[in-house]
Design a protein that fits this description.
Distance between the termini: 54 Å
Number of helices: 5
Order of helices and strands: HHEHEEEEEHH
Shape: globular
Bound molecules: zinc ion, calcium ion
Number of strands: 6
Strand content: 5-15%
Structural class: alpha/beta
Oligomer: single chain
Largest sheet: 6 strands, mixed
């Protein structure tokens, strides 16, 4: 997605790359304070609003949204039960982040909210073009993206599971992620219906790249993370044991268990230490306004009499 954006806008690419270099510098500082914070039990909680945009938005229940939020917290806390399946050789790299998510309790105007919006859409499906993010193109407008992590849930065409914005990659109002409603826990997408699509997209939202470096097998691409093995291409299905490829030809092989790969949900098990540091650094560098948001504080209602 970034590439198509940059083709249209070369000055955006330049700015993006400068930002990336600055960010990588800051990341080095981040690593030093991260452990101290973990010891102190510090967490960073982010308000989320889910926008359900479907011809019949009631097919996605509040319970499903809660299950999705729970999955997100479970994965980012690194307390996922299936982490027991991480092979011994990658276990030392398995990391718990300090990022947590809460359902918004108020609208941008200060009215009480469940953190879930439902929009009856005339569009049967959406794609990368962001139409789902705007009411005038069949979607629903974002809530102030400085105060809310916006997650749009819709039907996506062409087997697309979801897509995300990277920090500072364009339109402020479009910041957030889009996922197919069938990827939600209990949804209709076999092998991709335990809510891990949102975990992957949230990784992008916090500046993580695909683990294979998006270079079509060249081995020269990078995910800007040092503790993930170089990987040629995305994985599919579920692998087991050590799996090598043309970019990592020996040792422990590639990390097809990583959330930033494309394995089935059942086989996505971990973020690494440096991925977590990168995400936390992205949050503090680019998205820190989310941390001072009052969106998860319930509205106090007063009687008028
Ligand atoms: Zn992705
Ligand atoms: Ca890497």
């Amino acid at each position: 997605r970034l590439d198509s954006l940059f083709e249209k806008n070369s000055s955006l690419r330049e700015r993006f790359e400068q930002n990336r270099d600055r960010f990588n510098l800051r990341l080095q500082q981040r690593k030093r304070i991260s452990q101290r914070e973990e010891n102190a039990g510090i967490t960073y909680t982010i308000p989320v609003v889910f926008h359900i945009v479907l011809s019949d938005p009631s097919v996605v229940t509040d319970e499903q949204i809660q299950a999705q939020l729970d999955k997100l917290n479970n994965v980012f806390s690194g307390i996922n039960a299936d982490s027991s399946s991480i092979p011994s050789w990658f276990k030392p790299l398995f990391a718990k982040s300090k990022i947590r998510f809460c359902l918004a309790q108020r609208t941008p105007d200060g009215a009480p909210s469940t953190g879930i919006t439902r929009t009856v859409s005339s569009s049967n499906s959406f794609t990368y073009d962001d139409k789902v993010k705007y009411a005038n193109s069949g979607g629903n407008n974002s809530w102030n993206t400085n105060d809310y992590y916006n997650v749009w849930i819709c039907r996506l065409s062409n087997d697309l599971l979801g897509y995300a914005t990277f920090p500072e990659d364009g339109d402020v109002d479009a910041q957030g992620v889009v996922i197919d409603y069938r990827s939600l826990p209990g949804g209709g997408y076999a092998n991709y219906n335990t809510g891990k699509t949102l975990c992957h997209e949230t990784g992008h939202y916090f500046n993580l790249y695909h683990i294979w470096g998006d270079d079509n097998g060249a081995c020269t691409g990078t995910d800007y993370v040092d503790d993930t093995p170089n990987q040629a291409n995305s994985s599919t299905g579920c692998s087991s044991g050590i799996k090598t490829d043309r970019c990592t030809t020996g040792g422990n092989g590639i990390m097809y268990q990583n959330y930033m790969d494309y394995s089935y949900d059942a086989c996505l098990l971990m973020f690494t230490t440096e991925q977590v540091e990168r995400m936390e650094s992205a949050l503090l560098t680019y998205r820190s306004s989310l941390l001072s948001s009052q969106a998860c504080t319930p509205v106090t209602l007063y009687n008028n009499d």
